[in-house]
Amino acid sequence: MLRATNSASASVWMATSTVPEFPMLAGDLNADVCVIGAGIAGLTTAYLLSLEGRQVVLIDALGVGAGETGRTTAHFFPPDEWYVDLESGFGTEHARLVGESFSKAVDLVETIVQREHIDCEFERLDGYLYALPDNEHKELGKECEAARRAGVEVELLPRVPGLSFDTGTCVRYSNQAQFHPLKYLTGLAGAFIRNGGKIYCGTRALDVSGDNKLQTVSTTGGNIQAKAVVVATNTPFNDRVVMHTKQAGYQTYVIGVRVPKNSVPRILLWDTGDPYYYIRLETPDITADYDLLIVGGADHKVGQDTHPQHRYDEIEHWVRAHFPMAQEVEYRWSGEVMEPADGPAYLGRNPMDDKNVYVITGDSGNGMTHCTIGAMLVNDLIMGRDNPWESLYAPSRKVRHGLSDFVAEQANTLSKYGEWAKGGEVDNVNEIGAGEGAIVRDGVRMLAVYCDEQGGLHALSAKCTHLGCVVHWNSAERSWDCPCHGSRFDTTGEVLHGPAVAALEATTLTPDGSMPPITGHPDYQNQKPGH
Prior knowledge:
By secondary structure, the chain is an alpha+beta fold. It has nine helices and 24 strands. Strands 3, 4, 5, 6, 11, 12, 13, 14 and 15 form a nine-stranded mixed sheet that branches.
């Protein structure tokens, strides 16, 4: 059995489940639909289409749940973009459609769990939003009223019940949910296979090309011809520019802390901070005498914090300040979320392709919900049915709401290209510690140099293979991350997260694994770096 992983850290879901292993594609195939990405978005889409009688092929560069689904906190709660903001920016009807889609997504997951008898700890519970002390509680009142107008079951309360600290005024959202994401995907994959679907892992999609009648997905294992293609890879790889100007990749951090059993209520909880902290509870084993408090937050743009370990410390400090019964930290992991410029996710027809290529992206902090909505919406579009959410989530929509944030994100991205004019992060590769990486200038080139635990040096081109930004080292995940569009690479240069599809270019190494003398820079003349 293959455990899902794509980074140095591992989530509680990876430690408490196994996922099935599937073969690599070895040759060309034909299908009605090719779905790219075996996370919750891709597997749900493939499953729904298989129920419609479609012949579906599902591929993934790594494995089932090996991307961001295995790194989520796996909760279903209201949109990151509050209902009051959705109503203000898009109108009451828009907000109502968001509320409807969120509700139906949770209902669908519950239906699938029951229909397919999936043991994934699915649980309905309440979610609570509370204000930080320096935030105006009256804003929560506005949110509560807007949510009611959107058809959401909410209530304004003086505090969150059952907690060890007083939250003050809060909004209770009824009938939210949580589950074990990898157990869910395992059951979903099994159901899809029983319906006649095919899954190939270790098979990276490289390109999508064709017309309104037929698309060809070029992969590392062969070509797949299909009448429709669904790109469900967290961020699209098939669109070089347009979709990547509408969203930005953020790294979010999670810890799992032991707490005495039943000392924390089984709720979802999040605050009004920016970024906010969010919690849920997990019981790793029914025989255990403790629960696991899962807490996330401390987000930052991908590739824009070289040593992010302090973020785990910040989350732990917050936990111990609010939950004094907290015991040891058992898990630390991070994941990448795509933040859309104006709030709602991007779900539907890819704006730069023919009408039979679809994308599911822009998950924000609602990945499980948005991905399920995306699967429902795309399924309807492929089947030729009208869907009331189509324009709401259309990837082709213009950014109007949240325009100032959109402009700021673009300015941040453009500024990163200026790093090509700067020097390296170290003057000598001997400064790179074991298990660490740094950018080194080599004449006009930038090199990404990693020093392994044995002192061996591994040099790669620092040029992201997507649109050419200089990658940055991530010491928490031991990866090279692009600060422009969120691509991530392992220490050998292989792609961990798109939109890049090609590995970072490796430089020539000497037989002993050290890096040869670097030319074109006076600090390295007549010098052989090593450890």
